[in-house]
Amino acid sequence: MDEEEKNEFIDYLNDLDKKADTLDASVHLYAIEEARLNNVDVPLDNIYNCVRKDYNECTGKDADDKAILYKYLKEKERYNLLNILIALIIKNMLEEGHYKDLFVLNNFELFNYTIMLESLNLLDTDNLEGIEFTKITDEEINVIIEEFLIKVDPTLEWLSIYRNAKASGNIIEIDKLSNGDKEKYKKRFGKLENCCVLDDETPYILLENSNTLKYIRSFFHEFTHYIIMLNRKIAYPSPFFSEYPSIFYERYLIKFLSDKGFNKEEINYLIKYRDIHTSNNSFDISIILGYIKKILSGKNITEEDEIINYTTHINSLSVETLEILQQNLTNIDIMDATTIMHHKCDNTCDILIKYPYDFNDVYSYITGKFFSR
Ligand SMILES: [Zn+2]
After folding, report:
1. Partners of 199 in the beta sheet?
2. H or E segment at 195?
3. Angle made by CA atoms 11, 12, 16, in degrees to the nearest 5
4. Which whole number is the average pLDDT over 110-135?
5. Torsion angle of the four alpha carbons 366, 368, 371, 373, in this order, in degrees rounded to the nearest 10
6. Distance from the CA of 8 to the center of ligand 1, in angstroms?
7. 349 CA from centroid of ligand 1 (Å)
8. What is the domain partition of the chain in residue ranges?
9. 281 close to 239: Cβ distance less than 8 angstroms
10. How does pLDDT run across 5-33, given as a tens digit for each residue?
């Protein structure tokens, strides 16, 4: 860089600092500063070119250089980077006027843990395979769905969205289609399986109706996607965060069904199914909530605390729960606590850098319904 370019660069950084309107930009500021202080050989010129672009538009050599910078940061500044990212999330929440969301953090965390814990308590490790589900009629299914929707959202907004979706044919039961229609829908949506798809800014739910509790479970999973798509008019915020609200409401539904006295074995199957299908494709936002809480209480996230928390947590689990975890997370016993915590920290940083606004967005879908009453 020549003198003029350097001045322009510094002006640009100062300007960025004032706005710091994206997490990506803010992290760059931090990273560049760190790299300079430590005389690290990172390709600053290319990063300068890249920082002006959106993360996903940054390609080729620029993207490679950016990756070098992140790698450096993660290796040398792992927890500092995480602290900065979480602080920026909080800043972003405040600037967007999400005071309420921060305020309900404690309530939400408590509620979230209660739901998870209660569903885990309902879990019985025996008789998990090959159970016959009781058949339920379409009318009975409709009654359960409506009752749960009223429980989740007493403003009845979700209930009316459901009724509208049904009336306008946006909920498509795959197995009830004629062969001709099956072909037609497959062509139109690109797939014909349990999912929620956006077609010309309108979301559709596609579902096989088995006329059992499994259908109700799948329905609420997809319906939560439906609500978010309806508001955002985009397919998914990110594959990590978008699953969380769906899984959250699924857990809540399972608790609801259990309270209503449905068959214990069937409830058990639903929980087990979710436990197995969650770990790989969903990011549990309670991890970020825990970090936010820590920063808000004036503390920093440190490696030492993380390892102590993890070890305490593992030691507090029952033998049965540990067995389930080990069955589903095969590497749990071969990695030590430090490696697992590094992985958790890096994973959180990666996701926050790549999808800076999705956390706030998704979190507000949950808090918006539960705590705005
Ligand atoms: Zn999903």
Report:
1. 202
2. strand 195-199
3. 120
4. 68
5. -140
6. 45
7. 23
8. 3-95, 101-370
9. yes
10. 656 655 655 555 555 455 555 666 666 66
